[in-house]
Amino acid sequence: MSTMLSVKDVRKTYEGGGDALKGVSLDIPEGEILALLGPNGAGKTTLISIICGLSTMTGGSVTVGGHDVIRDFRAARRLIGLVPQEIALEPFERVQNTVRLSRGLFGLPAKDGKIEEVLRRLSLWDKRNEPIRSLSGGMKRRVLIAKALAHEPRVLFLDEPTAGVDVELRKDMWDIVRDLQSQGVTIILTTHYIEEAEAIADRIGVINKGEILLVEETGALMKRMGKKQMILELTDPVETIPEGLSHWSLEIGDAPNELIYTYDAQSERTGINRLFADLKTAGLTLRDLTTRQSSLEEIFVGLVHKEDAA
Ligand SMILES: Nc1ncnc2c1ncn2[C@@H]1O[C@H](COP(=O)(O)OP(=O)(O)OP(=O)(O)O)[C@@H](O)[C@H]1O
């Protein structure tokens, strides 16, 4: 698949501030959904602002659809739709007009069929003649997306699209994002909701203190970094780990008859039969067995903390 967005060694130093981006490089293929995860102040908004031409870079280069965002700003910007974090809409303007206006800003001819399609897709068609101020917060967020889609962009940036949005609307947003992807739109979203990244992103990028720590396919990341735990429920409680089991990474769980065995998700179940044999030799009897895999949240927290400690 061809590269839609290419970010090369982008640096940003704010005047009087520190380095917000310290040489970020990232290639995103056409039609991908990439989630950028990072704690507050990591540099997510700065990166998006630079790609969209709203902020200057101190160094590096960015191309969108092959167009350099500085030298060829108009062509690059024409391909981009941006859904900002903050709701900034004209309260007295009507829904359909505000979306139409956004298309006009790109110098494109009015295309009411397209505007209708966008409004219908976002369940805003019935509200098209209502003033923005009469809409709920969730509906306003939909209007922001409609505005960003009015000029038929090929790359869509969503900066915290579901912050403060209820669960139902969040799921709806995910459907909209997937739908856009099926039309070949490339999507980059920033989020604080790790389960959101896990649910919809093809790849996850983790950014911290202006540096990309990793960019990896979601499933592979979970598999590579995830730990699995096996909870061994015993018929009788134990006070300490028996001598014959000390070479296994076992801990006593919340209940005294629970042993927790932690192993790499990658290594599958190698050695587990031996563990069972050793349990038996130590005189322990199993009553039940459950497994759990660490969440992306645990992986993320581990990554960012490791980096902070370094
Ligand atoms: N206009 C500015 N002037 C000076 N420093 C800034 C400016 N904008 C952002 N910064 C600093 O740059 C760094 C990155 O900020 P940025 O807003 O890009 O982070 P973020 O990852 O989007 O955070 P959040 O998740 O809180 O939105 C932070 O240290 C921030 O304080």
From TrEMBL:
InterPro entries: AAA+_ATPase, ABC_transporter-like_ATP-bd, ABC_transporter-like_CS, ABC_transporter_ATP-binding, P-loop_NTPase. Keywords: ATP-binding, Nucleotide-binding, Transport. GO terms for molecular function: ATP binding. The keyword Nucleotide-binding applies. CDD domains: ABC_DR_subfamily_A. It comes from the Bacteria. Residues 5-234 form the ABC transporter domain. This is ABC transporter ATP-binding protein. It comes from Psychromarinibacter halotolerans. The lineage of its organism: Bacteria, Pseudomonadati, Pseudomonadota, Alphaproteobacteria, Rhodobacterales.
